[in-house]
Design a protein that fits this description.
Blueprint: E1 4-5, H1 8-17, E2 20-26, H2 31-46, E3 51-56, H3 61-66, E4 74-79, E5 82-88, H4 93-105, H5 108-119
Parallel strand pairs: 1-3, 2-3
Antiparallel strand pairs: 2-4, 4-5
Length: 120
């Protein structure tokens, strides 16, 4: 499946409609972003069960600010509407694949239970 572009208006709905969403925050002028783009697109093709989305930080400055993006590229992963991964910097294909598998295998309910227990 190809990557999709998301905006501030479509961000919440994208998370609502999909179990797993990877989001690449990027900009056209960013060299590492351009290097990461084909790796991200190839992962999208390998994992049609996951939504791979891109946010142009120049066009979507309010969304980038709301997501606390301080460096690009930044990759975020959401599972069941919960942010489970966020890291700035371009990844190689192997690194991205490891993160995809980790997110797929992650038990979000257990993660939420642990967080609730820590707050108690």
């Amino acid at each position: 499946m190809a990557t999709i572009d998301i905006t501030q208006q479509s961000f919440a709905q994208t998370l609502e409609d999909n179990d797993i969403v990877f989001v690449d925050f990027w900009a056209a002028w960013c060299g590492p972003c351009r290097m990461f783009a084909p790796i991200f697109s190839a992962a999208a093709e390998r994992h049609p069960d996951i939504t791979f989305a891109k946010v142009d930080t120049e066009a979507e400055q309010a969304l980038a600010a709301a997501a606390n993006i301080t460096a690009i590229p930044t990759l975020m992963a959401f599972k069941d509407k919960t942010l489970v991964f966020s890291q700035p910097g371009a990844l190689n294909a192997t690194g991205l694949e490891e993160i995809v598998q980790a997110v797929k295998n992650l038990d979000v309910d257990m993660l939420r239970a642990e967080a609730a227990q820590q707050h108690a």
